[in-house]
Amino acid sequence: MRNLLASIVLISIAAIANSQSRPNYVQYVNPLIGTRKMGHTYPGATVPFGSVQLSPDTDEEPFLIGGKYNKETYRYCAGYQFDDPTIVGFSHTHFSGTGHSDLGDILIMPTQGVLQLEPGSADDPKSGFRSAFSHGNERAEADYYRVKLEDDDILAEMTATTRVGFHRYTFNRTGPRHIVLDLKHGIYDYDGKNVRTFVRVENDRTITGFRETTGWARTRTVYFALQFSKPFESYGYKDFDPSPYRGFWRKFDQSKNFPEMIGKQVRAYFDFDSGNKDPIEVKVALSPVSTAGALANIKSEAPGWDFEAIKRAGQKAWNDELGKIDAKIDDPNEMVNFYTAMYHAFLSPTVYMDADGQYKGLDQNNHRAAGFTNYTTFSLWDTYRALHPFFNIVQPRRNRDMIRSMIGHYDQSVHKMLPVWSHYANENWCMIGYHSVSVVSDAIVSGNLTGPEANKALDAMAQTARTKYYDGLGDYMRIGYVPVENNGSSVSKTLEYAYDDYAIAQAAKKLGRKDVADEFAKRAGNWRNVFDPSTGFMRPKSADGKFLAEFDPMKTEGQGFIEGNSWNYSLYVPHDPAAMIKMMGGKSKFAAHLDELFNMHLPDEFFAETEDITREGIIGGYVHGNEPSHHVAYLYNWTDAPWKTQERVRMILKHQYKAAPDGLGGNDDCGQMSAWYLFTALGFYPVAPGSGEYQLGSPAVSSAVIRLENGRTLRIEAVNQSDKNVYVDRVELNGKRVGRTFITYPEIAGGGTLKFFMSSAVDGRQ
What we know:
Strand order of the largest sheet: 8-9-10-11-19-15-14-13-17
Largest sheet: 9 strands, antiparallel
Strand content: 15-25%
Radius of gyration: 26 Å
Number of strands: 39
Number of helices: 19
Helix content: 25-40%
CATH topology of one domain: Beta-galactosidase, Chain A, domain 5
Distance between the termini: 41 Å
């Protein structure tokens, strides 16, 4: 991975032409899908897993208004909202579909005419440096974005390498031209979030600096280097939160043409020749370590000024990654859904190191990744379910490097814990569980992480799960569940800890570590301690062993659950569905229970407290727009009606994924929602990562070829595929009938042909 984009940029024209023999998968990618309402994705320029994720931000909403949380800020988790009429600028770091946020670093905005250093309002964009825009003058592709900034008639274009954002601004009028550099701007912004900003003017084309913030990540520093294609004539800045103490710097007029800009809320500007209409190009490199590292990243990845070459190289990188699966679907919109889902799946985690391997660690010291690529942006409560299992099949080398990055996090952690939700050399502790162990276990069980490295990883997994002071774990270890009086998400945590413990036990079993396997296999049964047989639901329990008296399985708030109610969370025993079904009354009763979930009505009042969940993501009482239920449709496979899994998953694909800006029923959550689509469209899904098993469903593809890293291919064929033929009469693997409802990792990795025989009638068995 190191210097990957540098080598791609320098590739010969003949080699690029050669690569075109592979189908053009990029044509099916639409980065605007999911940019309205709950989707919180973003269009923009980035290469697969890129450090730079350059995108327009359409507004600035403060996190607090009058000291109270501003609900509008949630709409801007990714910076871009499809329905907004204006753009405030283009920033270089974004999260894709998270329910909380950060970032939005190093915002750039071209303007013309009278200089303005306030963004102004959406109602009156000419009151500031923001600009009106329309979707008719906007185009988003993989690693390319362009839009016409209507107020000043400027064409803005951008592309990127792994660590460098490349802007091209074409001014169609004469007059004073400015580039505004906004270091005050951020996502989820509030007073005090910006700790310090620093800009240094190196010469009339190059500036360097850094931005330090506190927030979701308590101490985060982004270093940058910025180069212009043309010299600027003058420059200046304003600090919108000046310090009352000026020291002896007061002897200078620092506001104009002074080569150091220091403050908390800095906006700078650079003026260019007003009579020249040639485009102004800007390269912005990021570094986790230093401004010298950022400058070296430019030299390594984008040494020249050939915008089109960078774009071609980036799109080739995307085509190579998307080409890991060659899918065929008769509906063109579903082709867009499939490859846009792959695009979303390959946005994060993100590379977090310089071209020479240096990165900042959790201990805030500089480290060098030896023999691997270091990653950040681990949204593990979401991505352990399907995204990392998807990587374990189609990106095992990259997934292994992500695990090595997690082990580095563990080594640098004063708590000696694997990441929970981490980004930019910080642990932000968001959400529950310790789901990095699921990712590691899946790699160990599949044989993609072996030897001393796997055993070290197992030690880290076990140590993480024994950290008594972490989020109710002491109680969980002592009495077998998290008591409700000590923790507001007690039932959810008990259930997720139990699954994670199963994952540790599976890895230990694979490595022959019987003592560890026995310890955590026992803990994996703790889910039973919060099951109430009198109601048939998981229910909060106090430390004295009594269930909470006031209980409503439809409600989330105050019921011991997080981002899901008991109707959904009671089904969260992915590692032992058979035992769960038996406790809930047996196969027939359980299938009827699932039917009721999908067919019931969930009134708005029961998810009003949770902004991650909206009506668009709900089918009956099943909440697909949030992660805890993503395995639920596959649970029919443990009953006598596996055909209902086939029916449900095809319905969910149609209902929750559309090739439109409002096409996602919930947050994409760093690729998890998209990974669910990809697995399900291919016909199988990892209900319990670490088990080595994938439950069979009903594929949406007519055919697909998965190009595995071991050199083999797995061909998937759906015979008699159609919208009506959602049922599977039988499944064959390499010509032999699969007499069970699942396939295994070795069967996938072995390659060959997985053939589904489709039917419109429920008249056969798998």
